[in-house]
Amino acid sequence: MQFKLNLIVGAAVLTLAGTALAQDVVKIGHVGPTSGGIAHLGKDNELGARMAIDELNAKGVTIGGKKVKFELLAEDDAADPKQGTAAAQKLVDSKVQGVVGHLNSGTTIPASKIYHDAGIPQVSPSATNPRYTRQGFKTAFRMVADDVHLGGTLGKYAVTQLKGKSIAVIDDRTAYGQGVADEFEKGVKAAGGKVVAREFTNDKATDFTAILTSIKGKKPDVVFYGGMDAVAGPMLRQMKSLGIEAKFMGGDGICTGELPKLAAGTMGDGQVVCAEAGGVEGAEKKGMDDFRAAFKKKFNTDVQIYAPYVYDSVMVMVNAMVKAGSSDPAKYLPVLAKTEGYKGVTGTISFDNKGDLKNGALTLYTYKGGQREQLAVVR
Fold first, then answer.
1. Fold of 147-276
2. How far is C-alpha 306 from the chain's CA centre?
3. What is the pLDDT of residues 229-261, one digit of tens each?
4. Phi and psi torsions of 226, nearest 5°
5. 2-145+284-359 belongs to CATH 3.40.50.2300
6. C-beta of residue 28 within 8 angstroms of C-beta of residue 72
7. How many angstroms separate the CA atoms of 37 and 56, rounded?
8. Is the peptide bond before 30 cis (omega within 30 degrees of 0)?
9. What is the pLDDT of residues 28-42, one digit of tens each?
């Protein structure tokens, strides 16, 4: 009888210990394309999340008077909307307390409904299509400026600074690519410029001869591409082989450290102008520089583009949990929505009532000697 009682007590202790352990673990999901043509960008994002999780666990964070351990659940969406929604559902089923991602607007937008329906906060570090935060979902937040700001600023720059009199526009028909190209075209027209061609391809294409030959006949000063660097690189190579000397512009999707390699040395100095949907200057620049150095030391690779925004996304989410005294999404979501003046490595973070970043910056870049070179930070 005593032996049986001991077994019962022992089982109860184990059950309580298991429950306590489960309460101590906070699961944060991350989704990005870690396979496919832009896997280098997805891996960059995932490393940003891992860096934040490792730092939080090393520091020892207390939520509601209890020390917690953070666990990263990383999923690959291959930049594919269908795979993106499957990854989102998997994270919901795994009972994550928050999600950072996705990278692309085309995967972020459909996944956002799944997170919204489950009441799980989602912070995208890089999706720029305005629709993401205009669906009325209180769970959706964005860490960068949107396409209205990004595309519009680049369109104005093409006309006023690059003196583009005739401008050709190409997009990859994704939510991101078409969205930023549409806003670029509006920006060009608002600045008094002329769009002489509007063409499209897809995000898996490798041959642009027909499109570029048609564009060449219109003699553009500037060619804008709405899409990612995996397509922009080959497009630049083919522009060179066809003798198209126009300036090449694009949004944050092409504005990566990998672009010169993908273009295989065909980029002339100053030929490419792009914008990153974020940016710091002055005293804030040191924080970003320190992050890049720490990232390089930890992973032995350079930041591609959005790792710092992923890092800040995790930190802002956890900051809301700490302030709310709970990792329960229903309890910390209202606190996350009221984030105001959080000092991150990407700058000061505050959200508006749609979940968009207030006063989001853009950084304009060109390339010289195969390296990105900053032109200006604009707001």
1. Rossmann fold (3.40.50)
2. 5
3. 999 999 999 999 999 999 999 999 999 989 999
4. -95, 105
5. yes
6. yes
7. 31
8. no
9. 999 999 999 999 999
> For strand 342-344 and strand 247-250, is the pairing parallel, antiparallel, or unpaired?
unpaired
For residue 297, count other CB atoms closer than 10 A to its CB: 8
Going from the C-alpha of 22 to that of each of 26, 29, 49, 219, the distances in angstroms are: 8, 16, 21, 63
The amino acid at residue 330 is: A
* Partners of residue 374 on adjacent β-strands: 365
The answer to whether residue 333 scores a pLDDT higher than 80 is yes
- CA-closest candidate to residue 326, choices 20, 72, 26: 26
Which residue type, as a one-letter code, is found at position 170? Answer: I
Where in the chain is CATH 3.40.50.2300?
2-145+284-359, 147-276
- Residue 183, classed as helix, strand or coil, is helix
pLDDT of 2 reads 46
* Distance separating alpha carbons of residues 252 and 20, to the nearest angstrom: 43
Q: Is 291 helix (H, G, I), strand (E, B) or coil?
A: helix
Which element (helix H / strand E) includes 75?
A: strand 66-76
For the residues of 182-201, what is the DSSP string, one character each?
A: HHHHHHHHHTT-EEEEEEE-
